[in-house]
Design brief:
This protein is α/β, with parallel strands linked by helices and 302 residues long. The chain is 51% helix and 12% strand. Bound molecules: guanosine-5'-diphosphate. The site of guanosine-5'-diphosphate has 18 residues, from helix 5.
Length: 302
């Protein structure tokens, strides 16, 4: 089942809505809506979306359009689904027709970047693509070791820096060239995610992007920002900064298995108008799933 194992904590937060609506009657509307508002806020839907949803429910209830708890619940689910479909419907990877397609994975350290890249390699390979990994996090010595482990685990080739302190853009250039010469379908590029020198990180990412574009026209095809789902709404400033500087084409939201703040999925899509392409719902190799709005809404509102 899709998203099994994921979103259970968020669902627990939102389960109170079912109880409230089971005994709802018109005279009780304001109290019930206050509590629904609270449940949405606690799950990190954020004030903007929460107020929009609750006020539209209130209007429809008092206008007599919603006449039962079930109808209110369905309207609530539909509002969330509408946000995701309007602003983040394009969840499929856009890989273009030129080979190789290049996917850059960016994000701050600890968010789940390397793990997500490994899981994505596994998924794309099992769909039949020839995958080359590129260890573009040259800043952290352990990062390319970690990626080597994933290369072994997934049976993918990897290009790593030959000498210490190599430039990230040089490693990615080498990898994408190899990908082109040797007919790979997709080059998956890891990048650095150091937190404390953000400015030069952003410059480095721009340099990587340019270096890749020089080798394959139209590449990188995707720049996916990995965000730690346990940080909830706190991920928004980070998402904005990366998008302003590098231009993000999609999100990977990780650790949603352990996060009670799954409403941030809706918030980040609404705020940035960029789709969530994958969600991480565990540490296993299979635990990166393509994001599907409807399945998500059904998973969090049980
Ligand atoms: P990076 O520094 O961004 O490359 O982060 P890592 O890929 O090393 O991941 C940091 C930690 O988060 C590791 O212990 C991962 O196993 C864990 N992790 C990554 N994604 C998920 C996920 O979807 N669910 C859970 N529970 N843990 C995850």
């Amino acid at each position: 089942k899709i998203f099994s194992g994921g979103f259970t904590k968020t669902r627990d937060n939102l389960a109170v809505i079912d109880e409230l609506l089971l005994y709802w009657n018109l005279s009780d509307t304001d109290r019930v809506l206050d509590e629904i508002e609270e449940a949405l806020l606690v799950s990190d839907f954020g004030p903007k979306i929460t107020i929009k949803i609750v006020e539209s429910l209130r209007d429809d209830i008092y206008a007599g359009k919603l006449k039962s708890g079930t109808e209110i619940k369905d309207a609530l689910k539909k509002s969330v689904l509408d946000i995701l479909m309007n602003k983040g419907a394009k969840t499929e990877l856009k890989l273009g027709f030129r080979k190789p397609a290049v996917i850059m994975i960016v994000g701050v350290n600890g968010g789940g970047k390397t793990t997500s890249l490994g899981k994505l390699a596994h998924r794309l390979k099992s769909e039949g693509a020839r995958i080359l990994l590129a260890a573009g996090d040259t800043f952290r010595a352990a990062a390319s070791d970690q990626l080597e482990v994933w290369a072994e685990r997934t049976g993918c080739e990897i290009v790593s820096a030959e000498k210490e302190k190599a430039k990230a853009s040089a490693v990615l250039t080498q990898a994408v060239k190899k990908g082109k010469e040797q007919g790979y379908d997709i080059v998956l590029c890891d990048t650095s995610g150091r937190l404390h020198t953000n400015y030069s990180l952003m410059e480095e990412l721009i340099a990587c992007k340019k270096a890749i574009a020089k080798i394959v026209n139209g590449a990188p095809n995707e720049i996916l920002l990995v965000l730690d789902g346990t940080t909830g709404l706190n991920m928004l400033p980070q998402a904005r900064e990366f998008n302003e500087v590098v231009g993000i084409t999609g999100f990977i939201l990780t650790k949603l298995d352990g996060s009670a703040r799954g409403g941030c999925v809706v918030s980040v899509v609404d705020e940035l108008g960029i789709p969530v392409k994958f969600v991480g719902v565990g540490e296993g190799v299979e635990d990166l799933q393509p994001f599907e709005a409807e399945a998500f809404v059904n998973a969090i509102f049980s």
